């Protein structure tokens, strides 16, 4: 359409109508372009996300991952609240028997979900806690038999660490250092020195960004009342917030983007910066847990009010930070197999 309009007026450059139309085009076409691209984005997300339909294997798998990871997090507590995640167990019982899932049970995330379900049942049976109202023994046996040789009675959805062991690879090769970073939710409540946090922020600055615009930044929060308000909005660290006394809020300033094609580039730059910061925190022995900020407009407005964040900035993520307990657990968070994340185009 853009090229068609240009072609029409090119032959009448000197006419008044051309001059007026040219001004209108230059003034308003970018707005039209934004709207048409946003319509495309809306249609694309509506069609391919889980919002309206769960009708593909990948969509079902996403639901499975979301629920089994919640169960892993429930296993982190020092005192298990038996019967936890009841609704998630019910949903998993539904999805894990789906024919598409059964046919692809060798996929890493589906296989580990079966194992987590077996662990959940065995934990409750071992402690004589009746869960038959929402998780029947025949379901457990089905998952166990379906795993077949992959079943491991010592499987655990959590990993136990001492603080010294967890930070033991700070000066190791990058592959070992990278593999050693995990999300930590068990904090002592003691504060990390500001100078150490500043060092981590300084190190994270080497993250790449589009055209080196460096649009991302961190807000450092120590006010416990504000931290609790923000974490209540985020609602993903319930049960662990008592000892979270320091919080980083990562934002990206949209002022640094100039084209319609860059309308979501701030998420990419913010994500790259976030990962670099997580490595930097781990390098300086600061326990950290990123908490996703996938919120709608009202919550976005609320957090900006609480923290006085500029209106042009988009919140990317929250990071709970602090001193790790001497002994703690992290979720297994099984990573995908290589053939699931690498496609070689010939």
From TrEMBL:
<dbReference type="InterPro" id="IPR000415">
    <property type="entry name" value="Nitroreductase-like"/>
</dbReference>
<dbReference type="Pfam" id="PF00881">
    <property type="entry name" value="Nitroreductase"/>
</dbReference>
<protein>
    <submittedName>
        <fullName>Nitroreductase</fullName>
    </submittedName>
</protein>
<keyword id="KW-0560">Oxidoreductase</keyword>
<feature type="domain" description="Nitroreductase">
    <location>
        <begin position="180"/>
        <end position="322"/>
    </location>
</feature>
<dbReference type="GO" id="GO:0016491">
    <property type="term" value="F:oxidoreductase activity"/>
</dbReference>
<dbReference type="InterPro" id="IPR029479">
    <property type="entry name" value="Nitroreductase"/>
</dbReference>
<comment type="similarity">
    <text>Belongs to the nitroreductase family.</text>
</comment>
